[in-house]
Design a protein that fits this description.
This protein is 43% helix and 18% strand. The chain has 200 residues and is α/β, with parallel strands linked by helices. The two termini are 22 Å apart.
Length: 200
């Protein structure tokens, strides 16, 4: 059994992937856990893909190869599907299920798949699947920009990473802008509660 936990986070540019990664990295360091991180940026300013790899434990590399992810955390359903090659039969997938239509699909050049079809494909590629409308919970907490916090809350509830809920909350309070801290914590707890409610 490996003592390394491999987490992939995928999002569209502007959804807050990098802040979520930073919070997890800072929380891990605070807990005295070794952490390796790397990021791949598409055309982030134009809604391109942003992918982060986070490895908790004594990892020699920050790269997560195909089939190696323990957890896939997706901020957008189609991006989760695009990253599914990183998964294996033991991977846990947590994803926002509200689509963010890419430009090509918005102008009719490409068809966005049905979310039911995306869900079916993701379920087939994972051990456990947790998908819900995280954008809705973020808006209810105060702003759609706290989508990343909702998904961090769901991740914390599933107890898949070696960092507890309290430490992630502390890091959110300390490392996010003061004027957004309470909204972020509200969103985090909404995601935690939703994951608890849905179970897997």
């Amino acid at each position: 059994m490996s003592n390394i936990t491999k987490l992939i986070i995928v999002a569209v540019g502007g959804q807050g992937n990098l802040l979520a990664s930073k919070i997890l990295g800072e929380a891990a360091l605070d807990a005295g856990i070794q952490v390796q991180m790397s990021e791949i940026h598409g055309m982030a300013q134009r809604g391109g893909v942003v992918e982060s790899s986070i490895l908790f434990g004594d990892a020699k590399s920050s790269i997560i190869a195909d089939g190696e992810a323990d957890i896939l955390l997706g901020f957008e359903p189609l991006e989760s599907l695009r990253a599914v090659a990183k998964c294996n039969k033991n991977t846990e997938i947590i994803t926002n299920m509200r689509p963010l239509q890419p430009f090509t699909s918005a102008i009719g050049l490409a068809k966005y798949p049905e979310t039911e079809e995306i869900e079916k494909l993701l379920k087939a590629k994972s051990k456990n699947f947790l998908g819900f409308d995280a954008t809705k919970l973020a808006i209810e907490a105060g702003t759609s920009l706290s989508l990343n916090m909702v998904l961090l809350g769901a991740l914390a509830q599933r107890n898949l990473i070696p960092i507890g809920k309290d430490l992630i909350e502390k890091t959110i309070r300390e490392k996010t802008k003061k004027q957004f801290a309470e909204t972020n914590l509200k969103a985090f707890n909404a995601g935690f509660d939703k994951a608890l409610e849905l179970g897997v």
